[in-house]
TrEMBL record, chain A:
Residues 116-306 form the ABC transmembrane type-1 domain. InterPro entries: BP-dependent_transpt_permease (IPR050366), MetI-like (IPR000515), MetI-like_sf (IPR035906), OppC_N (IPR025966). Pfam families: BPD_transp_1 (PF00528), OppC_N (PF12911). GO terms for cellular component: plasma membrane. Signal peptide: none annotated. It is a multi-pass membrane protein. The chain crosses the membrane at residues 53-75, 120-146, 158-175, 181-199, 238-261, 287-309. The keyword Oxidoreductase does not apply. One of its GO terms (biological process) is transmembrane transport. It comes from the Bacteria. Keywords: Cell membrane, Membrane, Transmembrane, Transmembrane helix, Transport. This is ABC transporter permease. It is found in: Cell membrane.
TrEMBL record, chain B:
CDD domains: PBP2_NikA_DppA_OppA_like. It comes from Promicromonospora citrea. This is ABC transporter substrate-binding protein. It comes from the Bacteria. Keywords: Signal.
Automatic annotation (TrEMBL), chain C:
The lineage of its organism: Bacteria, Bacillati, Actinomycetota, Actinomycetes, Micrococcales. SUPFAM superfamilies: MetI-like. This is ABC transporter permease. It comes from the Bacteria. It comes from Promicromonospora citrea. Keywords: Cell membrane, Membrane, Transmembrane, Transmembrane helix, Transport. The keyword Cell membrane applies.
């Protein structure tokens, strides 16, 4: 990542002003300026991002993954379960099989392409569920505090108690099919508590900033302050956590499959192939490389995007 | 690649069996020279946490049976090849295969010093059979007269009526003297003596009946070892029993059964020299363990057969067309290819419904051609069935629990069926074992379902009656054939063992004609041992004969 | 402050009731019949099953079962598992080792996560930052059943540096490998969270101010950057202690550790409600305490956060 323009810390004497750091918070200045154009917060972030090459690189990576997930047939003429024959078991890469074949004699290249759909769907859906539930509960608990905080935080504690294997077995028996949505529900059911705690912590540390107090003094409603000031300023840990979590959710599907409580066995997924590859780990570990690499590529795209979004949302960083 | 093994259905499957004959022959002489040759090292063996208290009639899985078979001695014991030898019994005799007179040897005691008498056996069997005691192996006493009277009375719907059983003891058991008792069976069973080495038939000391719960934690037996210490989920220490009076002379300083939950970790410990014997090689090492261990590896068929069962309630498998479909599916499976490629030779293609380690087993039972891979014939039969009644669009489902690794063979099996028959085929996965059982027992399974059978005692009858007999305990398909039942009855009553074998084969032919289940392959005993131990022999039941292992300190 | 502490501790009661009820309900909703599975493939006679059900109160309605559980808790007699061992013993056996492992993993991921994250943040976009990103991607992309087994074979068997399995009385050395494996995913999270917070705070005005006042770089990093960066990280670590306490089925299996993960998984597979609920409840208590500490730490890290 070549981008480092925020790196240049001012040398002594070159700062914008000199003041005792603890008693006067520059946040006051920030608050007033953003308050003048409250709705521009998110728009400004967009303008900021669109000027950064890193943004476009990450968007391109994610687009590639999404296109592959939607229409894998564009890149291969084969179907993932077509032509699988034990006679072709564990062939090395060749012109016919770019990545070689797995134990069942299926083309790994094709399976990796077709595996994108379920894996990316599980990752995205779970992340979406977790972020929405977790952020709302965490932000409300942290910002409003008092009895709301008590109730929501204790509710989080209660949900934390549920072991995910138990949740998985129960949820998978209720849903009609073991789809990506079902697996996402399973993963989200125990995953949201972490992000709720993180959001609450971030909101707690932001809500006492002077610019929030100032906005209050200027008569903004509490909900508006939460949305316009508190949340954007608390977004960094949420974004960072969820982009990494996106990857861990895709991998978690592999573990669920490994334990027999994952996607429907007929669904091709990176996790499923990683899990199936385990029995070849002593002899042909390389067959696990391809699904793992595809996964890493996807996660890298989202992590980079997350970084850019965070930079753009960070008002402190934007003040040059 | 079972993440965690549990219960007989899962834990019992990857097992071991009889080693090449030469290996056994080598140490036969050593045994006879007496205790002077015995080594003193403690042999460590990979095992798991027993799933039940250590009570013989309760133990129905391999982790527990490694303890019971070494801590107890029954009337007979099995050698490595599954041949029966008298242990506590002096003789077991019958004129009609129905009334059996059993006499005991003198001088046997339990490790607490109390004598082993006819009463020790009769009391133990009565306890095991008595319904309210809820013993896992109670069904082993079913052939004995009066079994129904000691069961909890139920109404027509199968609900307990709340009354006590009509009798407390089996009417078919009668103590004649301290060293003799008579067993009367409900009907003739020629292989009854063969069963008596199974753990259900071990004797129990008087102290058991005072406090069964305490006994289950610290059992007292009459076998070659005593259980000295049981650290749950970690270690069971077996030490030589000084008062043991039988032929299974202990050649080592003791055995430590080390609990593992993952086969890979046990195997890695073996490679690293931390463990002396593993009895299950993990799937990841199927392709490498024989190279890595060389002479110290075992890979022989075990007394375990894997079958794809066909539910009789499924209309698509009924009638003439249904039979053709069963045959077509069977012929569409390339058993050689799957056992070679998927299991790296750690399974042996099935050629019948029993197992090669069982005496009387034959490779070419009449009708077994249906197990040969024959894609052309398979396709032809399927098309003929289609002409009679179309299959429809629905895929062929193969159901199994998914908490153990079954996808690894179901996927390629399905690929083969898809290729050969041109129909869709899917793995119908149940997350947990009990969910699978539930669906199976409630006739909710959509297609074929996985079934596996491990022999309790080395006899062909054990692979046939309990599974395919009308109304039998493990007849999960709902198969019923009068012809088969009659043939079994005839075989059970046969006076001559060879005649019995022929009749059992004829019974198998009936099964091949009906295909209530499609035999796939026999599990192999896959195991290995470290350089620190010698004389390791795996028995017919896939467990190593621990008493004869030697290890110098 | 004391008032706050007392109130928080009182709140444990509703959490206890809520969590146990929810867990009990889930076990109740769990499909399959645990008793039917006790006999393995072969099954048990119906009458025997009925008896076992009566023994474990499984034939009772939901709330009656739950009340039996509460009674068990308050009389210190939770009864036995299906395998005949006292539930309390099973839980007590598994907890200490998992706790030890969790603390080790937490230390590893915290030290390395914060350390690497700090440097990556201070050198944003430089080689170190990118290397660490690739490294953490690798850790994210491989499931523990792969990393664990590979580490075991390479470090344990081939190189012989560390014990292959933890064994039955593990010391710190034999727990090192499983702790590292457990720490991997969370390490990536802590690293990224620290890195981002550092980047945010490095550019924050009060840090520039501090620099402007002539404070040395090291001192600024220590006093200002790190301290203000820690809130999300500390929050995550608090939650992660809870996560680590639930153990890892896979890691424990690979390294043959008789801990919470495996015991809980077995109990869930078997449908042993009392074991599941007791074990999970104990873990929630640890989680609550950890989070309470984190909440108190907030006030230390950021004096503007106050509790009344």
């Amino acid at each position: 990542m070549p981008e480092n323009r925020y790196e240049k810390a001012p040398r002594p004497g070159q700062g914008h002003y000199v003041a005792a750091p603890e008693d006067v918070k520059v946040g006051v200045v920030d608050a007033v300026s953003t308050d003048e154009a409250p709705s521009s917060m998110w728009r400004e972030a967009w303008r900021e991002m669109s000027h950064r090459p890193l943004f476009w690189v990450s968007v391109a990576m994610i687009l590639v993954v999404i296109v592959v997930a939607l229409v894998p047939g564009l890149f291969t003429s084969q179907l993932p379960r077509q032509g699988c024959s034990l006679a072709n078991s564990l062939l090395p890469p060749s012109g016919e099989h770019f990545f070689g074949t797995d134990k069942n004699g299926c083309d790994i290249y094709t399976r990796t392409l077709f595996g994108a759909k379920a894996s990316v769907l599980v990752g995205l859906l779970t992340t979406a569920f977790v972020v929405v539930i977790g952020t709302v509960i965490g932000a409300v608990a942290g910002y409003y505090g008092g009895w709301l905080d008590t109730i929501l935080s204790r509710l989080t504690d209660i949900f934390f108690a549920v072991p995910f294997v138990l949740a998985a077995i129960v949820i998978l028996s209720i849903v009609p099919s073991r789809s990506a949505l079902a697996v996402a529900l399973v993963l989200a059911s125990f995953g949201w508590t972490t992000i709720a705690r993180i959001t609450r912590g971030a909101v707690l540390s932001v809500k006492n900033n002077e610019f929030v107090t100032a906005s209050k003094a200027l008569g903004m409603s509490r909900a508006a302050i939460l949305w316009r000031h508190v949340l954007p300023n608390s977004a960094a840990p949420i974004i960072v956590y969820s982009t990494v979590a996106l990857g861990t959710f895709i991998v978690a599907e592999a573990t669920l499959t490994f334990l027999g409580i994952g996607l429907d066995p007929s669904t091709v997924s990176w996790g499923g192939d990683l899990s199936a590859g385990r029995s070849s780990i002593r002899t042909n570990a390389e067959i696990m490389f391809y699904p793992a690499a595809a996964l890493a590529f996807t996660v890298l795209g989202f992590i980079m995007l997350g970084d850019v979004v965070r930079d753009a949302l960070d008002p402190k960083a934007r003040k040059r | 690649m079972t993440p965690r093994k549990r219960l007989v259905g899962l834990g019992a499957f990857a097992l071991a069996s009889s080693l090449v004959l030469t290996a056994c022959g080598g140490n036969g002489g050593g045994d006879d020279t007496g205790e002077g040759d015995a080594s003193t090292g403690i042999v460590s063996v990979g095992n798991g946490e027993p799933q039940n208290p250590i009570i013989p009639t309760m133990t129905n899985e391999t982790f527990g049976s490694k303890v019971t078979s070494n801590v107890f001695a029954g009337l007979v014991y099995y050698d490595a090849e599954g041949v029966v030898h008298n242990e506590v019994a002096e003789s077991i005799e019958s004129d009609d295969n129905k009334t059996w007179t059993i006499t005991l040897k003198d001088g046997w005691t339990f490790s607490d010093g109390t004598p082993v008498t006819a009463q020790s056996f009769v009391d133990a069997w009565n306890y095991g059979a008595y319904g309210p005691n809820a013993q896992n192996l109670s069904y082993f006493f079913e052939p004995i007269e009066g079994f129904a009277d000691v069961q909890v009375p139920t109404d027509d719907a199968g609900e307990p009526t709340g009354e006590d059983p009509a009798a407390e003891e089996l009417s078919g058991l009668e103590v004649v003297s301290d060293t003799e008792f008579v067993v009367t069976l409900a009907q003739p069973e020629s292989d009854f003596p063969l069963r008596l080495g199974y753990s259900a038939f071990y004797p129990l000391p008087e102290s058991f009946f005072d406090d069964p719960e305490a006994f289950g934690e610290a059992p007292i037996g009459n076998g070659p070892y005593v259980l000295e210490n049981w650290e749950h989920n970690a270690l069971i220490e077996l030490r030589p029993n000084e008062s043991y009076a039988g032929e299974r002379e202990v050649q080592n300083g003791g055995v430590d059964l080390v609990a593992y939950t993952d086969e890979d970790s046990a195997y890695n410990d073996l490679l690293d020299g931390n463990l002396d014997i593993v009895t299950n090689v993990p799937a990841s090492a199927f392709g490498t363990f024989e190279d890595e261990l060389g002479e110290r590896a075992v890979n022989q068929p075990a007394a375990v057969v894997q079958v794809m069962n066909v539910p009789e309630y499924n209309e698509k498998f009924q009638g003439e067309a249904g039979l053709m479909r069963r045959q077509a599916i069977s012929m569409a499976i390339d058993r050689n290819q799957i056992t070679e490629t998927v299991f790296s030779g750690s399974r042996t293609p099935a050629s019948d419904f029993t197992s090669p380690v069982i005496s009387g087993w034959s490779e070419d039972v009449e009708g077994s051609e249906v197990l040969d891979f024959n894609p052309d014939e398979a396709k032809k039969l399927w098309d003929e069935a289609e002409a009679i009644e179309p299959w429809g669009d629905e895929p062929l489902y193969i159901a199994s629990n998914a908490d153990s690794d079954h996808q690894s063979w179901i996927d390629p099996t399905c690929n083969g069926i898809r290729d050969t028959l041109g129909i869709d085929c899917e793995f119908d996965a149940y997350p947990t074992f009990d969910e699978f059982l539930d669906a199976r027992d409630n006739n909710e399974i959509k297609g074929l379902f996985r079934g596996g059978w491990q022999a309790d005692y080395p006899a062909m009858s054990n692979f046939l009656g309990p599974i395919y007999g009308t109304g039998a305990g493990s007849n999960d398909m709902g198969y019923s054939s009068k012809e088969f039942d009659d043939k079994l009855k005839e075989a059970n009553g046969a006076s001559d063992p060879d005649e019995a074998v022929e009749l059992y084969k004829e019974a198998e032919t009936i099964l091949f004609n009906d295909l209530p289940g499609i035999p796939l392959w026999y599990n192999n005993a896959t195991g290995g041992w470290s350089e620190n131990v010698d004389n390791v022999v795996f028995g017919w039941d896939s467990d190593p004969l621990l008493y004869q292992v030697t290890k110098s300190e | 402050m004391l008032w706050y502490l007392g109130r928080r501790l009182l709140q444990v009661i509703p959490v206890f009731i809520g969590a146990t009820l929810l867990l009990y309900a889930l076990v109740f909703l769990r499909p399959g019949d645990p008793v039917a599975a006790l006999g393995g493939e072969r099954g048990l006679p119906e009458a025997v099953q009925q008896q076992i059900r009566a023994q474990f109160h499984l034939d009772q309605p939901f709330f009656v079962q739950y009340l039996y559980f509460l009674k068990g808790i308050f009389t210190f007699d939770l009864g036995n598992t299906f395998t005949g061992r006292p539930v309390s013993e099973v839980v007590a056996d598994a907890l200490p080792i998992t706790f030890q492992l969790a603390i080790m993993a937490l230390l590893i991921e915290t030290v390395f996560g914060i350390g690497f994250g700090l440097f990556a943040g201070l050198r944003k976009g430089k080689l170190f930052d990118s290397t660490v990103l690739v490294l953490s991607l690798l850790l994210i992309a491989l499931p523990t059943f792969v990393t664990g087994l590979v580490l075991q074979i390479v470090v344990g068997v081939q190189l012989d540096w560390l014990p292959v399995t933890a064994g039955r009385d593990p010391d710190v050395v034999s727990l090192l490998m499983p702790a590292v494996v457990l720490a991997t995913t969370s390490f990536a999270q802590i690293l990224r969270l620290t890195r981002t917070s550092v980047i945010e705070n490095v550019t924050a005005d009060f840090v520039r101010t501090a620099r402007a006042k002539g404070l040395s770089r090291g001192r600024v990093v220590n006093r200002h950057v790190l301290r203000n960066s820690l809130i999300p990280v500390v929050t995550f670590i608090g939650v992660d202690l809870g996560n680590l306490m639930t153990g890892s089925i896979v890691t424990e299996g690979i390294f043959n550790i008789n801990g919470v993960g495996g015991t809980l998984f077995d109990a869930i597979s078997r449908g042993e409600s009392v074991t599941i609920v007791t074990m999970s409840t104990v873990i929630v208590l640890v989680y609550i305490v950890a989070n309470l500490l984190v909440d108190l730490l907030y006030a230390v890290l950021d004096p503007r956060i106050r509790y009344a």
